């Protein structure tokens, strides 16, 4: 009887230890997720600051001019702003603030702008350097496909073109 009582006491103690460890691991995972989101937000802020400086100073904008053709300073500033818009939506998606479907809807709207479409075409070689299996590459391909569908569509209701992705 004493052995059984001792074994049950030990088992109960071990179960409490396992539950405590499980709770600690879950808390550490939440902390890591929160830190990752904080890092993304910080990176987004730095990205915006760099782009803002380049938009305000044509000499700095030249550093970011890695396009296959030459563009005017005005067009370069517009491309930098287009990059900021797209990157902001990408970051929001990565942080979990918008779903993939909402990201798709945002992009479908911004693709109605001729300057953004021109930016998207000009940056195609840049996206080709992304790791094929990365989320950013996958979303870029989704935008490429949507742009193709929008250009091929012969309807005025652009907001119904393309099949929104499912999560």
Brief descriptors of the model:
elongated, mainly alpha, 74% helix, 7 helices, 167 residues
Structure description:
The chain is elongated. It is mainly α. The chain has helices at 2-56, 58-61, 73-95, 100-110, 114-122, 124-127, 135-152. It is 74% helix and 0% strand. α1 runs antiparallel to α3, α3 (73-95) runs antiparallel to α4 and α3 crosses α5 (114-122). The mean pLDDT is 88. It has 7 helices and no strands.
Task: Briefly summarize what is shown.
The chain is an all-alpha fold. The protein has helices spanning 2-56, 58-61, 73-95, 100-110, 114-122, 124-127, 135-152. The model has no long low-confidence stretch (mean pLDDT 88).
Strand content: under 5%
Low-pLDDT residue intervals, each spanning 5 or more residues: none
- Report the structural category: mainly alpha
The helix/strand order is HHHHHHH
Q: How would you sum up the major sheet?
A: none
- Gyration radius (Cα, Å) is 24 Å
Helix content estimate: over 70%
CA distance, first residue to last residue: 55 Å
Number of helices: 7
Q: What is the molecular shape?
A: elongated
Mean pLDDT: 88
- How many strands? 0
């Amino acid at each position: 009887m004493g052995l059984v009582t001792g074994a049950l006491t030990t088992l109960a103690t071990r179960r409490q230890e396992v539950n405590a460890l499980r709770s600690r691991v879950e808390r550490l995972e939440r902390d890591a997720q929160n830190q990752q989101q904080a890092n993304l937000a910080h990176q987004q802020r730095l990205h915006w600051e760099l782009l803002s400086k380049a938009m305000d100073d044509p000499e700095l904008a030249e550093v970011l001019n890695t396009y296959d053709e030459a563009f005017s300073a005005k067009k370069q500033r517009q491309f930098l702003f287009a990059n900021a818009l797209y990157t902001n939506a990408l970051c929001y998606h990565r942080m979990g603030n918008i779903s993939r479907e909402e990201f798709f809807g945002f992009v479908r709207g911004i693709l109605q702008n001729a300057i953004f479409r021109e930016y998207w075409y000009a940056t195609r070689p840049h996206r080709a350097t992304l790791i094929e299996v990365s989320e950013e590459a996958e979303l870029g391909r989704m935008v490429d496909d949507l742009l193709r569908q929008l250009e091929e569509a012969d309807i005025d209701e652009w907001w119904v073109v393309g099949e929104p992705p499912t999560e």
